[in-house]
Amino acid sequence: MAKIYAKANRVIVWLGEEAAGSDPALEDVRIAAERSTRRLGNKAGILILLQRPWFRRIW
Predict the structure, then answer these.
(1) Is residue 40 within 8 Å of 46, Cβ to Cβ?
(2) Which of 12, 13, 18, 59 lies at a 20 to 30 A Cα distance from 6?
């Protein structure tokens, strides 16, 4: 799977149903990826997002 992700131009994943704060958290992640020096304003939402099962998968 690492090779597949490494060669992909874009990866789309289903993280589950929307949860409180998930949209702003995803936006913060997108912005942080573009500007790595920006402070994240929605740390709690990002932590909740990263606790979803998809991020704990072992390939």
Answers:
(1) yes
(2) 18
